[in-house]
Amino acid sequence: EDQVTQSPEALRLQEGESSSLNCSYTVSGLRGLFWYRQDPGKGPEFLFTLYSAGEEKEKERLKATLTKKESFLHITAPKPEDSATYLCAVNAGGTSYGKLTFGQGTILTVHP
Amino acid sequence: DGGITQSPKYLFRKEGQNVTLSCEQNLNHDAMYWYRQDPGQGLRLIYYSQIVNDFQKGDIAEGYSVSREKKESFPLTVTSAQKNPTAFYLCASSKQGPINSNQPQHFGDGTRLSIL
């Protein structure tokens, strides 16, 4: 069974304090890993897709990386507006029809 | 701007009542999805549809029904058989069906369903 685990469950940072969020996955065959940002009461907003180990994607203060077992979302010099829940999801290959399996999310709070 | 519109934003259901959640997209996407989000849990797939007039059950389809009569629309009915319907419901779409593509899914802003 495909599994996605995100850690930590919650992370509190001071503005400017860089850190990383982790997404560990166990799937039959990874076709893609997706990162989303979700604000309270809103739907997830797509950030990145990573397809193969070693791949990296960047957007403003966010950088996503991928290994064969996990992905990291690095946040450099975060600002209060980066506060949100960050979701990781995998699209598995093999016999699966390619559905997304989501992690529980990491709640990020950035204090001024 | 193209996007996914879910309505209503808040919905209340009485015991024994069926309610329907609306999802409309103008992104010209083929595939559409319904998810349920509960606190502390990942999104769980209820139903998905790759083309008009075709849809498949996801992981938690019991107590729910859908239709796909138009490419743009994928309404979800929460029936009285769903005993724990209180949740945040999210609709999503993607460019191609999940079997043929690895395109990201894009989400609407959800409907929060509560029991009266």
Describe this protein's structure.
The complex is a heterodimer of chains A (112) and B (116). By secondary structure, chain A is mostly beta strands. In chain A, 0% of the residues lie in helices and 59% in strands. Chain A has no helices and eleven strands. In chain A, β7 and β8 form a beta hairpin. Chain B is globular, with a radius of gyration of 13 Å. In chain B, strands 2, 4, 5, 6, 9, 10 and 11 form a seven-stranded mixed sheet that branches. Chain B has a four-stranded antiparallel sheet with strand order 1-3-8-7, with no helix packed on it. The model of chain B has no long low-confidence stretch (mean pLDDT 91). The chains are: A mainly beta (112), B mainly beta (116).
Secondary-structure element order of chain B, as H and E?
A: EEEEEEEEEEE
Question: What is the residue-mean pLDDT of chain B, rounded to a whole number?
Answer: 91
- Helical content of chain A, roughly? under 10%
Percentage of residues in helical conformation of chain B: under 10%
Provide the succession of SSEs of chain A.
EEEEEEEEEEE
Q: Which chains make the largest contact? A: A-B, 25 and 25 residues
The assigned structural class of chain B equals mainly beta
Query: How much beta of chain A, percentage-wise?
Result: over 45%
Biggest sheet record of chain A: 6 strands, mixed
Number of β-strand runs of chain A: 11
Which quaternary structure do these chains form?
A: heterodimer
The biggest sheet of chain B, with number of strands, parallel, antiparallel or mixed sense and barrel status, is:
7 strands, mixed
Q: What characteristic shape of chain B results from the CA principal axes?
A: globular
**Regions with little confidence, pLDDT below 50 for 5+ residues of chain B:** none
Structural class of chain A: mainly beta
* Uncertain parts of chain A: none
Q: Please, how many helices of chain B?
A: 0
Mean pLDDT of chain A: 93
In short:
The complex is a heterodimer of chains A (112) and B (116). Helices cover 0% and strands 59% of the residues of chain A.
